[in-house]
Amino acid sequence: MSARLNNIIYYSTLPGIFLHELAHAFVIWVLPNTNITKLNLKSHVEYKSYNMTATRTFFIGYAPLFFNTIISLISIYVLTQINLFENITSVLLSVGLIYLSLVTAFTALPSVSDALAPLKSLYTQLFTLRFPIVILIGPLFITLSIPGLIISYISQKSVFMQFILCFIYTLFVFVIGFDVIGMNELEFLISYVKNI
Fold first, then answer.
1. pTM of the model
2. Helices (H), the chain
3. Rounded to whole angstroms, how far apart are CA atoms 113 and 61?
4. Taking each helix axis from N to C terminus, what angle separates 131-157 and 112-125, rounded to the nearest 10 degrees?
């Protein structure tokens, strides 16, 4: 993909990127003995922690997957509760909610550093007094981290593949959101758009 197209995708999904980084920051803020040292809403969050465990790094690394998906689903729910295209306000609100739902789902997937953090933490804890705990929870974190790691690795190798994977996840969240809320709203939206 060209640099220009990459910039278009980046700037069009910037609100989702902000929410991605805010999800990291929120979990860091909630966890005890962790402090944010640097917050850059366009790229990353740096933090320091006392007694960092694999569980904490998992929650920090995968927070955007959960938060952005929830925000996307809430946006779809609110979209189904308003009278679509009734007046200019509802049209603008509808477009804004669709945009928010799409960009938050698009930016929900973990980056390479997000996906690797729990595994690195597990590895460092193998040689400590936490060894018995690591043996018990290690397989769980490895199982949960591998899909994110595969997705982030593929995304790192090819911007085009990153776009495709994010697009597939966005469609998945959008369709699942309407499926959970009710297909009547999705059918109404599709029929309305066809009649325009």
1. 0.75
2. 3-12, 14-30, 54-81, 88-106, 112-125, 131-157, 159-181, 183-195
3. 8
4. 160
